[in-house]
UniProtKB/TrEMBL annotation:
The keyword Ribosomal protein does not apply. Residues 195-422 form the Glutamate/phenylalanine/leucine/valine/L-tryptophan dehydrogenase C-terminal domain. Gene3D superfamilies: Leucine Dehydrogenase, chain A, domain 1 (3.40.50.10860), NAD(P)-binding Rossmann-like Domain (3.40.50.720). This is Glutamate dehydrogenase. The lineage of its organism: Bacteria, Bacillati, Actinomycetota, Actinomycetes, Streptosporangiales. Keywords: Oxidoreductase. Belongs to the Glu/Leu/Phe/Val dehydrogenases family. It comes from the Bacteria. PANTHER family: GLUTAMATE DEHYDROGENASE, GLUTAMATE DEHYDROGENASE 1, MITOCHONDRIAL. It comes from Nonomuraea recticatena. The keyword Acyltransferase does not apply.
Length: 425
């Protein structure tokens, strides 16, 4: 038996099911390459624990909303589960499961002692007041409390959540424990035990991955970034700082383009002021889809899953795609792009900087100690560059794409941990 990708009626597939199908497809390919037996394949395809909760939220007008929340621990064979929490209206159990599975392979690939998890709430955080968001976060955390803890499962920010969300999680957990437990979440504010370098860590990792993949000076290299959020905005900034020309960026409200290069710092200030890249003064408006199809050297998808599909992949002209987002390229698009000669630095490698520095934050919390920004940066760079070089060697030795090689390494390490531990009872 191979890893089963369930058969679904195409018109009824949700983005979450599409993401899970992609993750299962990638696992299936790696399991085949590694020659894993059927039992182990099934185990790796199945999350260890999945929790769905109802989260009642009192709105400012006194009414009561009830939203669904999830926490999935895909695998804990190499250490505590680790993974972000997403607040987004289309989040469902399938998406959270896929994201948890990718976390498992990512942590194994970069060699940090964690399993993979993810959490999510099906809600649009942009329509909630700060007080509503706080109530929602605290109630959701209370519902998933039995699963999380510094030795069990450590959340972090993802789409729609930030340092403030992590502070509320840390406080809710600590109030229940009766003492402060900073190690229960990462991506916290510095004042609560956050780590220097965590805010920009995923983006720094994207920059390192891009420069390593280019293998030449980034001076004048043209870049388009889809998604100008926590990951995309700083990835654009760090790439511009390194000498690249960021010519287009987008967010959920629009896309902008300037062939002479955008002033990323000025654009970030514009977004802080107005909430969106749309109508930025020093650039032309662009349709969302056009950004993905620009004739650029590097495309950084840094928004959501399923951005590059079989329908737009033939029109993608970037020579290099560096996946800041998780799961932005479907398996069908992957094949089309490979045939076109496009190099893809896969999500589980390209965006691993976030979980690497989350790990460093957790280690500091567990030791009640803090490291300098340069210590954090050196460790991040070492782990990113080491993982990239391993992926390149495995790809070359086995004739695989970088994504296939990354999965072979990640899945292989988790499979080995299972085999060494044996099965209880
Ligand atoms: P975020 O909420 O801060 O930003 C997401 C951005 O994407 C926003 O600017 C939003 O407007 C934009 N967006 C949404 N739909 C879009 C669309 N159709 N077209 C263009 N832009 C769109 O989230 P984030 O933390 O930056 O996460 C982005 C991606 O990176 C996600 O896939 C996430 O899982 C992944 N990731 C995040 C981290 C992290 O540390 N935050 C780490 C690893 C991976």
């Amino acid at each position: 038996m191979s890893v089963m990708v369930p058969s679904r009626t195409p018109a009824l597939i949700t983005p979450g099911q599409q993401a899970l199908d992609s993750a299962l497809h990638q696992l299936g390919q790696a399991a085949e390459e590694l020659g894993l037996d059927d039992g182990l394949r099934t185990m790796l395809a199945t999350p260890r624990r999945s929790l769905t909760v109802s989260v009642p939220v009192r709105r400012e007008d006194g009414s009561l909303d009830v939203v669904q929340g999830f926490r999935v621990q895909h695998n804990v064979s190499r250490g505590p589960a680790k993974g972000g929490i997403r607040f987004h209206p289309s989040t469902d159990i399938h998406e959270v499961t896929a994201l948890a599975m990718w976390m498992t392979w990512k942590c194994a690939l970069v060699g940090i002692p964690y399993g993979g998890a993810k959490g999510g709430v099906s809600v649009d955080p942009t329509v909630l007041s700060t007080r509503e968001l706080e109530r929602l976060t605290r109630r959701y955390v209370n519902e998933i409390l039995p699963l999380i803890g510094p030795e069990k499962d450590i959340p972090a920010p993802d789409v729609g959540t930030d340092e403030q969300t992590m502070a509320w999680i840390m406080d809710t957990y600590s109030v229940n424990a009766g003492y402060s437990v900073p190690g229960v979440v990462t991506g916290k504010p510095m004042t609560l035990g956050g780590s220097l370098g965590r805010t920009g860590a995923t983006s720094r990792g994207v920059q390192i991955a891009t420069l390593t993949a280019l293998g030449r000076s980034p001076e004048g290299v043209t870049v388009a970034v889809q998604g100008f959020g926590k990951v995309g905005a700083l990835a654009a900034q760090y790439l511009a700082d390194a000498g690249a020309r960021v010519v287009a960026v987008s967010d959920v409200s629009g896309a902008v383009h300037n062939s002479s290069g955008l002033d990323v710092a000025d654009l970030r200030a514009w977004v802080t002021e107005t909430g969106s890249v749309a109508s930025y003064r020093h650039a032309d408006a662009l349709a969302h889809d056009e950004l993905l199809e620009l004739d650029v050297d590097v495309l950084v998808p840094a928004a959501l899953e399923g951005a590059i599909t079989a329908s737009n992949a033939p029109r993608v002209r970037a020579r290099l795609i560096v996946e800041g987002a998780n799961g932005p390229t479907t398996p069908e698009a992957d094949e089309i792009l490979a045939a076109q000669g496009t190099t893809i630095v896969p999500d589980i490698l390209a965006n691993a900087g976030g979980v690497i520095v989350s790990y460093l934050e957790w280690v500091q919390n567990m030791q009640a100690y803090s490291w300098s920004a340069s210590e954090v940066e050196v460790r991040l760079r070492d782990l990113m560059e080491g993982a990239f070089s391993e992926v390149k060697s495995v790809a070359a030795a086995r004739g695989l794409t970088l994504r296939q090689a990354a999965h072979v390494i990640g899945v292989g390490r988790v499979a080995e941990a299972h085999q060494m531990r044996g099965l209880y009872p």
